[in-house]
Each structure stands twice: as structure tokens, then as C-alpha cells.
Amino acid sequence: MKAFxxxxxxxxxxxxxxxxxxxxxxxxxxxxxxxxxxxxxHNQLGxxxxxxxxxxxxxxxxxxxxxxxxxxxxxxxxxELDIIFSCFWGEIIKQEILDIPRLGIYNLHTAYLPMNRGSxxxxxxxxRGDSFTGLTIHKMYPGVDNGPIVSQVxxxxxxxxxxxxxxxxxxxxxxxxxRQTLPSFLDESFVLKEQLEADSTYQPxxxxxxxxxxxxxxxxxxxxxxxxxxxxxxxxxxxxxxxIGDTPNVYFIIxxxxxxxxxxxxxxxxxxxxxxxxxxxxxxxxxxSVAKNTGIELDNHVGGMYTVHDILRMLNCPFCVSDIKLxxxxxxxxxxPYRYENGLLEIPAVKLINQLDLKALLLHAKxxxxxxxxxxxxxxxxxxxxxxxxxxxxxxxxxxxxxxxTQVYSxxxxxxxxxxx
Length: 421
Hints:
This protein has 421 residues and is α/β, with parallel strands linked by helices. It has 2 domains: 2-203, Formyl transferase, N-terminal domain (Rossmann fold); 242-412, TIM Barrel (Alpha-Beta Barrel), CATH 3.20.20. Helix content is 32%, strand content 19%. Helix 1 (9-21) runs parallel beside helix 7 and helix 9 (278-288) crosses helix 10 (306-314).
């Protein structure tokens, strides 16, 4: 059976060795060994190179190849392949490529699908406190880890497991599963089982919560999060920002310099378990283009809108102001800056309508000072007769300090803890 590999790291090399041992004819591989980010895997973590293994076995390999490119399509078609196997590859493969091998393309995803589709499934399993994760071999569809399952194995998470130990356990279990499943590919007896969409979970691209511990998490949540980032020699987690001054204080954020964007309606269409289809992404890219390399003010709370999160991340947007509240709602939860699942920082703001709103906020600020454990932020958006200058003067006369949104972002952009061995 004629096969091809798209992959990286140890697991891709183990796949190649297993395919050859089982009698597959491996006609080539796409590798990522030339990418700068792979140096740490080879030089410091000691992972084998798919490129080197192919060269040793006189198997053609291709570096820097985009799977969806015309060049790739011509090459794969010319090989008259029966099957392609993939692991640790970042591209979402389009249907024209998926249809080239006679049996399709099959991916090894380091999660127990349909749980933890998408980015960084092993850290997310730890962060969410899952009792197990696993590895799934599934047929690839154009979406994100949504194709039917061939086989899968559960890997239980121990109380002391961290990202490094769990990664190793999952990959070893995955290799054994791959070896056990190969005979069913050879005789084409494998069975495809559709995933249950109702049970699916998805994580967007980007570092989970920006790698930063949140002060409001309890001790168990903080511990799980820190273990999810313990994978020497990679950088570790980030601690929450310390207080700006010697003691916790209340700070008003008054700023009118951010670009403002109205999200296309209805906003609800961006709330689904994935990164969006081509049309939706094109619509959002056009609307959000002003956010490139700058913070942005949105007209809508974007929690759960992973399509919006993903595009803002690609535009290198560092933060957004979008969870807009009226002044009399400011005592409700999620009023302080916090990071979304992909690391984007949101700074919830209060919409001022009149002078009474401002006086209510000043009273609220005075009531918060006593007993504060951390700095407390009150961001303001002016949406009425009061000018920014009038608001600033009133805040100053009440002896409260003022910041800009960019200063708050810089305050939250803390250093990473060193956990390298």
C-alpha cells in the first residue's frame, strides 16, 4: 500500500518506522524540521528528525511545503497514493487535497476526540481538570479535528502529571495504538465512527489564557494551570501582575484613542465551536483590519467568539475593550481585565451616560479601597454629554489615579517564570 507522511517530532518518525515494518511503501514526507520553532524540539528535547530518518532510508522529503499549494497538489497526485498519515501539523487541509489519496488522509490528534479539538490539547486537558486525555486516529475533514474516528486510546491524568509527562504518555500510547491499527488499514477493514458534535469541545489557536495565572482562580485551578506549562526547556507560565504601587489601589482608565469597530450582525453567528468558514472569516477580517498591532474597542462582548479571537490574534491585536457595562452593573462579575482562551486581554469598560453615572462610579471606587488585595481598575467609555476632559477632572479631584488602556495592557504583560531544567 502506497503511503505518505505529513508530520514532525518523534511521533512522525515512529509512524514512519511502523509503516515500513508493516510493509507499507512510503513514497515521501512533508517535514517541518527546517522551521525555527523546531530547533528546541531537536536540539534540547532530543526529538528525532523526520527529515534525517527519510534521508537515511532514501525516502524523498520536502521542507517548507504548504500542503494546500498547487505544487503540493501536483506532487501528491503524481504519486497515486492509497493513504496519507499526519501528526503535529498546523494547516487545515482543503478538500481537494483530502480527496487525493484513495482512502483519504488520517491524523493522529493528541486528545480523546471529540474532546479538546484544536490547539494545544494536552495543556488544555490539564487546565480544565480532565480525568483523562488520549490519542485519536481519525479521517481528516476540512474542519478542525472533526472527521470520523478510526481508533482511539484513553490516557489517564495523574495528580502529579504536568505537560511534559503527559505529552510523553500520550505519544507512547499513540504509537502503540497506531501499530495496532495499521493492519486494518492494510486490509481495509477499518470502520469509521462519526464524532458526536454535542460532546465536542474546542480550543482556539494561541497560548492558553496568554500563559498567565488569574488572581481569581482557586488554588487547584492555579496548580493545574502551572502544571500545564511545565515542559522544560520551554518558558513557563506568567504570574498575575503585582500591584502598581506599594499597596493595592483603585485606578480609573480614561482613554479615547482606540479605534472603534462595529461587528457585523448578527454577532451570534460568530459563536460556534471552531474558527469559522471562509465567508465569515473574510467578513471579519475586513471589519477588524484596523486592529492590526493595536488595541481595539468593540461594540459587543466577544467571549466565546473564537472566530473573532483568532482573527484578532492574527492581526497582532494585544487587547480589546468590548465587555461594555452600564455604571449600575459594575458590581457584577468579570469587571476586571482578564484573558480569553487564546491569550487576548479584555479590559471590561463602563459606559457613562450622564453625571449621575460618574458620581455613582466614584462612590463605588471609594467603597472598594478598603480590603483590596489587588489593584482594581475602572475603565470608562464616554457615551453622553460628558467629555473625556470633564471626566478626568472629576476623577482627579477625587484623588484617584488615571491610566490608559495601553498602560493597563503593559501592566498585564508580565515576565514568564523560568522552569527550565
